[in-house]
Amino acid sequence: MDSFSQTLIAFNLVFCLFRSVAASDSLTVQNPYLRDGFSLVSRNGNFELGFFSPGLLGDRYLGIWFKNRRGPTSVWVANRENPINGSSGVLVMNITTGNLTLYGHNTTDVVWSARLLRKVPNGVLQLLDNGNLVLRDGDVENPQNYSWQSFDYPTDTLLPGMKLGWDLRNNINRRLSAWKNLNDPSPGSFTWRMELHEYPETVMWNGSKKYFRHGPWNGVTISSWPLGLAPNLILHFVSNEDEVYYQYTVIDESYTVMLVMNQSIYVRTVYLWSVNEREWTVYNSLPRDFCDNYALCGPYGYCDFRVVPSCSCLEGFKPRSLQNWKAGGFAAWL
Prior knowledge:
Layout: H1 3-13, E1 26-27, E2 33-35, E3 40-41, E4 47-52, E5 59-66, E6 74-77, E7 84-85, E8 90-93, E9 100-103, E10 110-113, E11 123-127, E12 133-137, E13 148-149, E14 157-158, E15 164-167, E16 172-174, E17 176-181, E18 184-195, E19 201-206, E20 209-213, E21 233-239, E22 243-250, E23 255-262, E24 267-274, E25 279-286, E26 301-303, E27 311-313, E28 318-319, H2 322-326, E29 332-333
Antiparallel strand pairs: 1-11, 2-8, 3-4, 4-5, 5-6, 5-7, 8-9, 9-10, 11-12, 12-13, 14-23, 15-16, 15-22, 17-18, 18-19, 19-20, 21-22, 23-24, 24-25, 26-27, 28-29
């Protein structure tokens, strides 16, 4: 019998005892398992890690969500492409190597595992109050020494403090991909990522087609970022030999902000949670209108959403095909 099986048997013997224990924010070498039906809660109660079913089929996923808030609260999902059928899932932190693995029905049914930057035999898996799930050495809390963190592997949501972009040292591309639909958290075709070139910029993609781009950093902000993005929100851009990323922080802690990719309507939405009003509100969405779509009117065309059709040719140009132009296939030529 392997060490995992022995430890799992021992865990099952004391399983009922955990029902009376207050929620913890960590897994440790003394308690290295999280089973379906139990959860980790961040120290100040902002976030919760556990198993959930988003749809009617009952498929189970390990995820992180805002605790005690109505509305769109899920912010991260581990096994997006490999749901667990039933409530047999268990998250295991190996007490010898520090490896982090999610099992389905048995020890051979691996549905998800973490890509560790280094081994942490004295590991602690901790859910932080900013929504980041981190695996670290038990004696070290420095973020630079995390062996793994969920912020490096986002799903459809960007939280304050998360980075959208590249960790070039470890070849980690921090990008967002929308859920396929409200009942299926597997990665959809609607994505948002950092494009690396001389002037890095973030671009939304619909499959293999560019859908929307913000434009590059102009030294102060993103050139096409909407003004008044959210109350007291500050944008940061970092580009060096180690990392290239955007990040935002919120000064006013009475507001919670999250950016969510939504494939149902193909928009990236900024949600605000007000402590006073106790509800989520939509602050803004991108694209803002029809004309925000990338290269909509083709070369030598321009867009005006106030008229129909919205695309027109620049002076001196005419449609390459009048029939296609009227059907929405915009392309102009001299």
